[in-house]
Specification:
single chain; alpha+beta; 8-stranded mixed beta sheet; Acyl-CoA dehydrogenase family protein; AcylCoA_DH/oxidase_NM_dom_sf
Length: about 575
């Protein structure tokens, strides 16, 4: 189930894609672990990686829609694969790719053919891009911006204002910048325009993070914005910002998977070859439990992320289910990544601080992913918008197949207005659970999920509770587990996942549901009926020592399975 550079051959993709993915892996492996670690510790800008990507045409091939260049395509399946590989070797390498994706979002959504052609040319030349949305004062609050565009009397503008926390802002050939007109109030005054970090009116202030990556603060001073530089105006600019985040937010899940995979090889190999008190560390029952739990959670992360790709690629104006699965990948998969690292860290202890390990870097970097493209709380609040229709109003949809075909995902750049989330319908979530009812912990989790529906029907949050975000977020966590389990089950069916591993995954989900039910019970704002429901739906997973032993054997086999070249 895990990515292993020693045996990696992405046969599911076409030959050009296979060559580029394999070339990326080979570049990191030939560079070696010492260079990977030294440049991280020294916070060395990854110019050598960008030179490699430029030489191979990596970003140009993967991030140019077919409409801009017929030999290229924007294919979410292979983009997700590259996310995982880059995360496996380090967050910084993934980050420069991620913010290039964000910078391109407003461009590929624009009708401005001149800027689209400029972006395609810059990609072909090896440039990276940046997304100039957030500001120090306002964060990523799209409703507020201090980037002011003043009409110049000749059909263009001069732009003055700050941007903060902008990846690639030090070198980006094109920066998609969000601002507002000085002479137009309200949403009609929004503007997205293309800027160049090399322009004399573009002032780079500093790197705002203590890391290998460059996350810039920059300021424009009377920057000339020609009419041909404008990407979007009015409501379309607002929609472009949200729809870009829809595309870019998804990438965080597979980066998290890659980080955890590399860390797991290190952790299992270290623990399995260490002897304490005359016993192998992995002979201790609590160690086996923690590493097995980490493995099951990591497999679930990968299953959910892979299945989400299919919904992105099948999306249309009539099928917007991806808009739920997107914040789920951002919130749930990335926080599971933190749990996976913590479980392994409890086992390897002080080893996890050592400078010559990848794990030391993973333990720091995994924390960042749930906090990018909106916090966990923001994404949970978004997920709640879908809850009623998801649980109680299923609709008919044609089955969504695995989408590994070499197709351009053009819909992602014509998503349309960023509204109407509460009207989106879903297929019946129970179908996936029914198909796996023979697996003990799936059945047990289904009892909890049905109970959650009963809670909402009998003791729905009151008007006061609906205004209490602290209370609602716990409801959101319970709901998110049901959605998470559904896509895990769908992907398990499509891939023929070992039933033992699936049972182990739902062992964890049963415990997680019980933990959040306990939290709900403790909320001061919960009614007596809601608190009683919470305690009544705490469940123990179905124990099976033989199943646990079989899954442990899969974890144990990771020892020595991969070590990065020196």
């Amino acid at each position: 189930m895990l990515f292993n550079p020693r045996s990696y051959d992405p046969v599911q993709f076409d030959e050009p894609t296979r060559r580029l993915l394999r070339a990326t892996v080979d570049w990191f492996e030939s560079r070696g672990k010492k260079a990977l670690i030294d440049t991280y510790i020294d916070r060395t800008w990854y110019a050598d990686f960008l030179e490699f990507a430029a030489k191979e045409g990596l970003f140009a091939e993967f991030l140019t829609p077919a409409s801009a260049d017929g030999s290229k395509r924007w294919d979410t399946a292979r983009n997700a694969e590259l996310n995982e590989i880059l995360g496996f070797y380090g967050l910084g390498y993934w980050y420069t790719w991620q913010v290039t994706i964000l910078g391109l979002g407003p461009v590929w959504q624009s009708e401005n053919e001149a800027v689209r052609a400029r972006a395609a040319k810059l990609l072909a030349e090896g440039h990276v891009m940046a997304f100039g949305l957030s500001e120090r004062t306002h964060g990523a609050d799209i409703y507020s911006t201090d980037m002011i565009l003043t009409p110049d009397g000749e059909g263009g503008f001069t732009a003055t204002g700050p941007k903060y926390y902008i990846g690639n802002g030090n070198v980006a050939g094109l920066v998609s910048v969000f601002g507002r007109r000085s002479d137009v109030e309200g949403p009609e005054g929004y503007v997205f325009f293309a800027a160049d970090s090399r322009h004399e009116a573009y002032h780079l202030v500093k790197n705002v993070v203590n890391a290998q990556m460059y996350v810039s603060e920059f300021r424009l001073e009377n920057y000339p914005v020609r009419a041909e530089d404008v990407l979007h105006t009015g409501q379309a600019a607002f929609d472009a910002a949200l729809n870009t985040v829809n595309v870019g937010k998804f990438n965080l899940c597979t980066a998290s998977v890659g980080i955890c995979e590399h860390a797991m090889y290190e952790a299992v190999t270290h623990a399995h070859n260490r002897v304490l008190y005359g016993r192998k560390v992995t002979d201790f029952p609590h160690v086996r439990r923690e590493l097995t739990d980490a493995y099951a959670r990591l497999v679930a992360m990968k299953l959910f992320s892979d299945r989400s790709v299919d919904y992105f690629r099948t999306a249309s104006p009539e099928d917007r289910r991806y808009l739920l699965f997107n914040p789920m990948t951002k919130m749930k998969v990335t926080t599971e990544g933190e749990k996976v690292i913590d479980l392994m860290w409890d086992v390897i202890a002080a080893k996890g601080f050592e400078a010559d390990t990848y794990f030391d870097k993973a333990a720091k970097d995994i924390r960042g992913l749930p906090k990018l493209e909106g916090t966990v709380h923001v994404n949970l609040a978004l997920i709640l918008k879908f809850m009623g229709n998801y649980l109680f109003a299923p609709a008919e949809y044609a089955p969504v197949p695995s989408r590994l075909d070499a197709a351009d995902d053009a819909f992602l750049f014509r998503q349309g207005p960023a509204r109407g989330l509460g009207a989106i319908r879903f297929h019946d979530w129970r179908t996936a659970y029914d198909a796996h009812a023979h697996i003990a912990n799936v059945a047990r989790f289904r009892e909890q999920a049905d109970g959650f529906c009963a809670l909402l029907l009998a003791h729905a949050p009151s008007k006061e509770q609906q205004a209490d975000l602290d209370f609602l977020l716990e409801i959101g966590q319970l709901f998110a587990l049901i959605v998470y389990g559904q896509l895990v089950l769908e992907q398990a069916e499509l891939t023929g996942l070992d039933p033992d591993v699936l049972d182990q995954i739902f062992d964890a989900l049963v415990r997680d549901f019980s933990a959040h039910a306990t939290e709900l019970h403790g909320k001061s704002s919960a009614t007596e009926e809601q608190a009683a429901w919470a305690l009544a739906h705490v469940r123990r997973p179905v124990a099976d020592a033989e199943r646990a032993a079989r899954v442990w054997a899969q974890v144990e086999a990771l020892s020595g399975a991969y070590e990065m070249q020196p």
